Amino acid sequence: MLLRQWARRPGRAAATIASVAVAVGAVVATWVSADASRTGYRRLTEAVEGFPTVDVAARGGGRFDAQKLPSLADIPGVRAVVPLFYRPTLLRVGERRVREVAVGVAAQTLTELGLMKLSAGRPCVSFEEVVLEESLAESLGLGLGDEILFFARRRIERMTVVGLAERSSISWFAETSGVIVDIRVLGEMSRSLGSLDRARVVLKGEATRQQALKAIRKRLPESLLAEIPVGRASMAEDVLHSADLGLDFVTGLTVAMAWFIVGNAMLMNVTERRRGFSLMRLLGATGRQVRRLVVLEAALLGLVGAILGAGIGLLAAGPISAGISRALQAPPGEQLLVQPLVLPVSIALGVLVAMAAAWWPAQEATDVDLLEGLASAPQPPARGTPWKFIVAVGLLTLLAVLNQALVLTEVFPPRAAVPGGMTLLLAFVATTPILLPPIARLLAQLIPRRFRVETTLAVEQILRQPVRTALTTGVLVVAVTNGIGLGHAIRDNVDDVLGWYSRMMRADWVLTHAGMISAAGSAEGLDSGSAETEVRELQGIDRVEGIGIATGRLAGSACVVVARDMTPGDPLPLEPVGLSADELRAALERGEVAAGTVLARRTGIKPGDEVPVEVFGRTTNVTVAGLVIDYTSGGSSLHLTRAAARRLFGMNKADLLLITAPEGQAERLREPLGRIADEHAMLLRSFGDVRAFVDRIVQGVVGSLWAILGLGFVVGSLGVANTVTMNVLEKRRTLGLLRAVGMTRGQVTRMVVIESLLLGAAGGLIGLFGGVTTALFIQLASQPLLGHPIQASFRPDVVAVNLIAAVAITAIAAWLPARRAAGLDLLESISAE
Amino acid sequence: MSILQAEQLTKTFETGGDATKVAAVGGVDFSVAKGEFVAITGASGSGKSTLLHMLGGITRPSSGRVVLEDVDLATLDDDALALIRRRRIGFIFQRYNLLPELSLLENVALPLVLDGKGEAACDAAARKALEAVGMAARSGHRPDELSGGEQQRGAIARALVTEPAIVLADEPTGALDSANSARVIELLQELVHGQHQTVVMVTHDPDSAAAADRTISMRDGLIFSDTAAGAGVS
Ligand SMILES: Nc1ncnc2c1ncn2[C@@H]1O[C@H](COP(=O)(O)OP(=O)(O)OP(=O)(O)O)[C@@H](O)[C@H]1O
Ligand SMILES: [Mg+2]
What's the whole-model pTM score? Predict the structure, then answer.
């Protein structure tokens, strides 16, 4: 019976199946792509930060006996335990002398484990063998088989370069150093065989650091401690946090959009046949029988569609995921990673939603009076104020706001903002039946008078079917909300990070030690004092700022201490929260410190507190002047002037020199600075180089989010095309009548296109409000993550792109059905029931 | 003076996959004079509707010509045909004549609106047409608020609103009870005699057919008889 019905109306069954397929496909594709993004982010962080690691070090500082280190390798989530030994040395290459920190590791084992990658040669194992980082080797003009002289404690070793290592594969343990020697060799050379500076515990990708920390701490003797290593600036991590939240939002919104599409398809499929159902009941079928038939049909159509959609989704996810990997410049995954749950959950939900969506109109259709059901015209739309929807909007908004309040007060975790955002989105969709009529009428005024006929009819059609129109518009509202909301949130976040970065690194040139190891402290002092003096004496320099970085500990939390020249008259390189730049500057000059917002959040310190801070094993009490927005080490940072750092912690050296030339004369400094860099074995990089590195990360993250957003728009357009097609199929009689009384094909085409355009524009406008609200929502939600509010902004370009996309997509989506409507056989349409 | 001529009209449908051909109309010749009220009768499936659709430019004949006011419909493209339907022909179907989305007045004004006439002119003409069928009081109502007979009267008003050359009606009373049928037929009669309209009406109902000036009776796609009122077989 069902089959016969479908055979008679293959178009309708196909359109319904297509809707389900599109929806389920979207969910699968988004889900898989979001997973691919997360994997990509992780790889990216690995490339920047190294692998997720936990450090074991001596509690009192300094080296410790390797014997004391208990076995940790069997702890779940631990991938490898890597003992490290650092040793400042002087290398001689021909006439050049280079200060470097040599890093002792079990190079052979690391290479075998894939934790270190050699681009040429083999790992070092014995005396007289060394592995150099590629770019260091290149800058020193060294290749495989070349020799260098290695000065260490009254001995001079002649060593051969046996291997070249990829920078990204060693930075997780060697940081910025590029000289790698076997750990036993280096220990022996330093006459301290068997002792370690630290043991770095590499975790598996899925392990969380907190769990690993706990397990490791349980095994350590009193003299050792485990901590999360800090040191390298990890601005990437916070971008990733927000991006992760963004991904959750996108996935959630796509799911919502998908269900709108499925719901709409089923709704139409059933509503269209009201008369048929009435006839069946007239012939003796009970309401229950009819409903059972409808739900069974929905289940079958839904299942076919969902399975098709899952296939399509997987096909689509392939190139999207590859694109994301490319955007993140991570190597494309060996194969598509599909979580086992994705497919069954998507398919099951597709079928369930289809059944639910079919049941409701079937219930309505079988509830109505038999004669009314048989009446020639479908029911007129309810006139007057749609109280039902107003109440729904109110309740949903209230729920969303409540949820958000709980997230902000940290009763709920930041993730909980996602369901909150979805609720808000539902509220926006629920406003469509209320807002659509006035908006559609208003927009209709903008259409040229020439198309008055088509416009009038189109508006009538829209107002005729409030629920269906709302669902169709809902799809667009979701797409636009998605685009505008995330577009804003992402850009604001990125701007926040970039703003911080350019504040922090405002200079033309950056001079650092080739092998600076900040985390290892500077007990042995890689002094750059003379380099700094020389730079300051150079002609044609506007400003030199020295930055010293050291690892410290505040209230049991690892932190980075950043000591910086803050010359009066230069702009303050910090962005204070809750106090003015001048107030902060004055306090810093008095010797107080500024804390990063994340550190403050984590340790609970407040402005005005006096807290003990430990640096290089020395504990000093400092006064917290205020909080600053900072991403150094993910915001776990303390900032103070260099003078104060010298007095409080004995921090003398500058790890970084930021050099600014007078306007337009930066290039002139390249030569003299290059000379100083060579002399002191330092590295000179232009601001552009540094900036390019950050940009790469940021662009990758933003690119991947846009890719998924784009997917949302494609799905939205398919949904619209489907809805309009169904509208056309359902209105065959109306269209036939219109043609019979003299409507031309052109007029029919225009009417359908105008109808879609009005839907698109209305959806776009409602989505605009939804989007701006969602953006605020995401920003508020990421506040607890970042510890500070992100400056929200209104971006006309993002809004314009989204609105244009919404309208263009509906216009394109309407084109085929419109052509189809115009091409319908007149006679058949007239005879259609 | 003839206003509509059918010359050797045929229509063949190819049905299903087996490509059997059904000759719905198999070669029909006749002409309709201005001011004539013609009824077409015949058994179900005899080709009445198919003939009417060809006369009104809704379907194109397989062979033969339809000439309306000296214009050969076969020479027109789709858009020109739409214009003829809009301006020169008034259609009345058995039911579902009115768009449920529009009020009665809007429905009646539809052909004028489609023609891009000004709002005021459309309104005035539609009101006049509704008055003529005695439905002026219901102009603001939607079709589902009207009875079947009222809907059909509205359909007549719409058919008249453009002052067409000819009104084509396919069983306009087919869905009505006898009282309402009589009312509708009376209206059509008034049109022809009072306003000199031309009407071609397909009907099953002998009473309705009797109201016409001339009855064409069809059998198996051919004209079986063509009689003037009160006369014998011609
Ligand atoms: N679109 C079509 N495709 C195939 N055959 C058709 C089509 N339309 C009509 N026919 C056939 O043409 C013949 C004439 O049909 P038509 O609708 O003109 O009859 P009718 O005289 O109007 O009948 P009724 O009084 O039942 O309305 C019938 O045999 C019908 O089956
Ligand atoms: Mg018929």
Answer: 0.62
